[in-house]
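Bench notes, afternoon.
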Amino acid sequence: MFRFLKNMNWPMRLTMLRFALLPLIMLFYILAVSTFNEFFMNWGRLIAFLLFAVAAITDFWDGYLARKNNEVSTLGKLLDPVADKMLVTLGFVLILADPIWHIHQFDHPATIVFPFWFAVLAVFVSLSRDIIMNSLRFIAAEQGIVIEADKLGKAKTFAQAIAIGLYMMFAFNMNWMVQFIHPGIAFDLWTFVCIFMMSTAAVLSVWSCCTYISNYVKQVRQEEPEDGEDSIEAVATVVPGTAEQPKPKAPAKPRAKAQPKKEITEENVRKD
């Protein structure tokens, strides 16, 4: 195992590190939400956020190093997007598992700070987009169509990572034992930024999906030959492995006109 890791280049090591951080992020966040241990209740979300931030940063650096050092590999092309999808999906699951409903303070009434229905809607849109894109990529690959990733997809991933990180820190700040931003202008601004980033991620998800579908349709139309050209090529082309087409017969030569028969008369007989 260690020999295998030692022979890896740095982009692949960062990708594998991202895989290794996934269960740790899940573990610390679950312990923070579902246990009554004081340490995990107070600091579990913060540790999970820091691990998530490290994993998100490696997503940028592995691609940068692979392109800079010309170390792009087929295995890296396969594992890198898988690690990205798993990281974002885990973040969305943690958001739904730890809804922020309201604040409970001694001298403040309960205040709605983050609508849970909005979090569910944003997560549903983003995950639905990934399912549609993966299905379309599979269909395009079978047809031999390659559609390059555009900048919208990268911007969408960046917005999703920022939104998930802000939500984790928001949930950590809800614990009054470790709260560092109290209700007020800064707290409301943080709420607005968190909702804005989740909205941006959802909009970019829909936008990038529509752009990908549009590019796919254009590629399919370019691959389809016109009806006239298709019929001409079908007649002119001989299919390999089949019998040769018969050569066209030469046009028949025109026959000479038959001369009219001479009438047998006494004069003709005499001339002969």
